[in-house]
Amino acid sequence: MQLHVENLGVIKSGDIDLDKNLIILAGPNNSGKSYLAYLVHGIESLFSLSGILKPFSQEAVFFKRIQDMVTSPPILTNSELVKTEIIRSELTNNFESILKLLNFQIENAASLIFASNAIKPKVTVATSANSKKISGLNYFEDTNIEFRHEILSHFVRVNFEEILGFQSVFFYPAERTALNMLGKEVYKEKTMQSEIIGQKILAGGDLNDIKATLLPRYSLAIRDYLFFVNDLDKLSQNTRQFSAFAEEIEQMLLKGKVSVNEYGDIKYTPTGSHSELDMHVSSSLVKSLSGLVLYFRHLAQVGDFIIIDEPEINLHPDNQRIFARIIVKAVNLGFRVMLSTHSDYITRELNNLIMLGSQSNDKTKDLTERYAYANDELLQAEQVGVYIFDKGTICEEKVTEKGFAIREIDKIIMEQNIASDDIYNSLIEMQDEAD
Questions:
Q1: Which among 85-94, 106-115, 149-158, 285-294 has the top mean pLDDT?
Q2: What is the pLDDT of residues 202-243, one digit of tens each?
Q3: Can you state the angle between helices 284-298 and 176-202, rounded to 10 degrees?
Q4: Residue spans per domain, the chain
Q5: Per-residue b/e over 37-46, b at no fewer than 16 CB within 10 Å?
Q6: Which of 38, 117, 201, 418 is deepest in the core (most CB within 10 A)?
Q7: Can you give the pTM of this predicted structure?
Q8: How many C-beta atoms surround the C-beta of residue 109 within 10 A?
């Protein structure tokens, strides 16, 4: 899926290719990275979780024709497969109209996505060059199936997931440390506020006051993570296929076990100990990464889109390097990942994995073994998209078999090294010579 934005916060204009397996957003503070991440999460979650067909039934004549097809007797023949082919043709021929409706729905949801009426971006969604494909659905080949709106809805959803890449999205916010500890309290507070609003309405309260109270307090991404934390007591009853990967993260980074008790509270048990620790007495590393472990253990599915805002939070440089390897493991397991980062350690480690993954010979095998990299930690250049945010624009950085450069970070490191050498040579070395 191709995304074009205009007037998104400080971003005047920019384009992102969301079809890459690993997408890296880099740039100074207040350059629009988080806004872009919020927008991508909003697009994915709105069409994954809410009614993708809502605007179609009201505004699209062609969609009315499709509805008539699935509720009327078979056309031309008794074979329901004929209906399938006609519906597929309708969707394909009206593809651009459908995209316009999707773009319209995104822009109208901006206040929900950003928790602000002030942000009104222009958003354009388009497909990749060769991604227009419409899939059949076996439901339509069975003459005994009653054709309902829900079946048609699923049919369109399946096709748009293939065409545009819509799928389940998990946003891991920069505020995660606080939310992992206080998420339930925040959720409880919002519930109490809803009850107060209801009482005001029943009592005939001032409508302007009620409307002001109803404005979103949190962006859609933060709200969804709050829901995730609040639902952990139910989610933890299920173990997904990536529980082994969750354990691998625990072993590589956390050095202990993350769990959820019967009340939905997150607990941490250090390796070699039988004592469960509450979040507020656990290390900052555990506070920061426990939610990601629980996501992989209880919620993750192949093809999910994971967005991580500032993965380096609370991580020592050696753990930032390990985290980069974990991200590549996730990509190779079938996830798509977007990172918004300021970390030179993470980007340099990703470059190591790209250089090793872009070639296959005895030398790369020797280097992989020498530095203890695993084969599922290697990455190919064509899997990666890098975007630099600066001065109101989004510029794509070229990714080759040598990796990629984050010039803004490299410039700062070079300037610091020059200043450090100058200070040392001017003060310390001269003093040593004088002595």
A1: 285-294
A2: 566 665 665 555 555 778 898 889 889 888 888 999 888 999
A3: 70
A4: 196-300
A5: bbbbbbbbbb
A6: 38
A7: 0.81
A8: 17
Which residue has 């989004």 as its token pair?
Answer: 394
pLDDT tens column, 68-96? 655 554 444 444 555 556 666 666 666 66
Note whether 251 and 243 are within 8 A (CB).
no
